[in-house]
Amino acid sequence: MAEKLNKNNKLLCFVLHSHIPYVIGHGTWPHGTDWLFEAAAETYLPLLEVLLRLEAEGLQAGLTISLTPVLVEQLSSQTFRQSFLDYLTMKLEASASDYLYFQRTGEKQLMNLALYWRKWYENIYHLFLDEFHSDLISAFGHFQETGSIEIITSAATHGYLPLLASDQSVRHQVQQGRFIYEKYFGRKPAGFWLPECAYRPAYGWQP
Hints:
Order of helices and strands: EHEHHHHEHE
CATH topology: 7-stranded beta/alpha barrel
Radius of gyration: 20 Å
Structural class: alpha/beta
CATH superfamily: Glycoside hydrolase 38, N terminal domain
Largest sheet: 4 strands, parallel
Helix content: 40-55%
CATH class: Alpha Beta
Distance between the termini: 42 Å
Number of domains: 1
CATH architecture: Alpha-Beta Barrel
Number of strands: 4
């Protein structure tokens, strides 16, 4: 920082952690791709929309965001890009159907709720397809390049490092996390999120 801090100054760092296990190819609900799609529609895209709005106002978010390697790989896959559009289309159709149903039954509050979700998913669809060109990882990378956020990595599969059987397994988790980060963001990571914030002593360890 340009100005010297005195002892009364306080610093606050917001670190957002993002992880979804590898769910592609493991069904849809509750622990399949719907889990990933819900996170994209209700967390990642709304966050990117805020970053986009701040950028338009000439502001920076000043956030640190961890994206685990397994999440980055999923969000970058062609399977996600196409299936997510199918998911959003299904949500749009469901909200439209609910709106008509509640209109017929005279349930105005529920009708308005269905309309709210219809507009929500219309906006998410537009953001994903038109604003970010179906590429969430490139979108996050853009905001890192502009200095609005700092993206950090994590262990390859978000493995619980203290309980891995060998130090070699721990090293591989960390090295692969760094490799995936450099593959998608073109730089070395400035930080590393310890899965579950877990660590163990440096001396010999028997899980």
